Amino acid sequence: MSKQIGMSSTQLAAPVYIREWASAVGKKEGEGPLGQLFDFVSGDDLLGNKTWEEAESAFQKKAVSLLFEKDTEAYNRARFILAGDLLGQEIASSFGIKDFRIPMFGLYGACSTCGESLSLGSMLIDGGFAEQLVCVTSSHFASAEKEFRYPLDYGSQRPPCSTWTVTGSGAYLLSREPGGHLSEGGKTMKSCLSATGHEEERNTGHKVVDRQMFDLPQKCLIERKHEVAITAVTTGKIMDYGVKDSMNMGACMAPAACDTIYRHLKDFDRQPGFYDKIITGDLGTVGQQILIDLLMQKGYDISDRHMDCGIEIFNGEEQGTNAGGSGCGCAASVLAAYLLPRVASGEWKRILFLPTGALLSKVSFNEGKSIPGIAHAVVIEQM
Amino acid sequence: MSKQIGMSSTQLAAPVYIREWASAVGKKEGEGPLGQLFDFVSGDDLLGNKTWEEAESAFQKKAVSLLFEKDTEAYNRARFILAGDLLGQEIASSFGIKDFRIPMFGLYGACSTCGESLSLGSMLIDGGFAEQLVCVTSSHFASAEKEFRYPLDYGSQRPPCSTWTVTGSGAYLLSREPGGHLSEGGKTMKSCLSATGHEEERNTGHKVVDRQMFDLPQKCLIERKHEVAITAVTTGKIMDYGVKDSMNMGACMAPAACDTIYRHLKDFDRQPGFYDKIITGDLGTVGQQILIDLLMQKGYDISDRHMDCGIEIFNGEEQGTNAGGSGCGCAASVLAAYLLPRVASGEWKRILFLPTGALLSKVSFNEGKSIPGIAHAVVIEQM
Question: Is pTM beyond 0.95 here?
Answer without folding.
Answer: no
